[in-house]
Amino acid sequence: MTKFLIGAGGWAYFQVPGQDSLTAYSKAFNFVEVNSTFYTMPSLREAESWRRRVQKDFEFTVRCHRDLTHKLKLEPLDESYRILSEMIAICKTLETDILHVQTPARLKFTDSKIQSVRDFFQSASLKGIRIAWEARQTGTQPLPTNLVKLMQDFNIIHCVDVSREEPAYASDVLYTRLFGKGKHNIYQFTDEELEEIDKKATRTEHRKVIVSFHGLRMYKDAARYKLYKQTGKFPQVTKSTGLASLREVLSEDAKFPTTKQKLLQHQGWKLFDLTQTKRIRASEILQKLPQQTYQNINQVIQTLKKTPKGTSATL
Fold first, then answer.
1. pLDDT in tens, 160-205
2. Centroid of chain to Cα 129
3. Residue pair 259/292 in contact by the 8 Å Cβ criterion
4. Which of 53, 109, 191, 302 falls 20 to 30 Å from 91 in CA-CA distance?
5. What pLDDT shows up at residue 139?
6. Minimal CA–CA distance to 265: which of 241, 289, 239, 298?
């Protein structure tokens, strides 16, 4: 039976009054991707404290420090092996066997580059740690065949955002980092998109599926997907429906006075509950607003109530 790990990239923004963020997070999800290790190298003592603050069956994955991928570019150098060794020690402390490696889109995989990366992995001592490699690229071209061969030779997991692309090859572990289709991670997945992600995740049999959300609504998206896996249904994103639901969404951070265009830009990506079982993007309703300046939320809602026949009928 496939084991599903569902969570997000980090716990720092998971705030519960009076509770430690990681401990609270671990009660909601069974997995977290340690995002901070991409930027700073924690001490083993700090990693030990993370492990102690969660239950025994909670799982981590660790992001490799960017110096290895962005500065040293996976070259077989002494410093590269030193960084890898430190990352492996962190993985061991957190009792995880997966190290996520992300290479930048600007890194060109020429034949000579791929050979040097092969030399790096050939000489590396992974000590049972498995690499999940997110090889970012400019455009939509497939990975070079000799890079795919390298990954397969070293039992590397090809990590992708399955809402955008498919892994280059089948693996016993699927690791997907979900950002969505918005700019700067400003995105919230619709029910239909989460259903499609689930179809892709279950289309091939895997020993383990790791689903890591990274959008601005990552905790809510992860919770909605988790509940869908448990019940087959998606929960509401607000406490109400129709325009009352839209009001809730706008009340979070909409600033006034504002224009229709700014509302669409800053609020349109969010979901609200049209009914108890149907969610749509705020942009689908906000685009029906007349072009004018709005002084407050009440004016927006009252204007929507007066929009031409067809709009109010859907709310």
1. 999 999 999 999 999 999 998 888 889 999 999 999 999 999 999 9
2. 22
3. yes
4. 109
5. 80
6. 289
DSSP per residue, 181-198: SSGGG-----HHHHHHHH
- Name the DSSP class of 311: T
pTM above 0.70? Answer: yes
What is the rounded average pLDDT of the residues 214-238?
Answer: 97
Residues 6+ apart with CB under 8 A from 36: 10, 12, 42, 63
CA distance 225 to 235: 9
DSSP conformation class of 40: -
Which positions ≥6 away from 126 have C-beta within 8 Å?
84, 88
pLDDT per position as a tens digit, 117-148? 999 999 999 999 999 999 999 887 899 999 99
How far apart, in whole angstroms, are the C-alpha atoms of residue 248 and residue 280?
Answer: 14
CA distance 54 to 129: 21
Task: Name the amino acid, one letter, at 149.
Answer: K
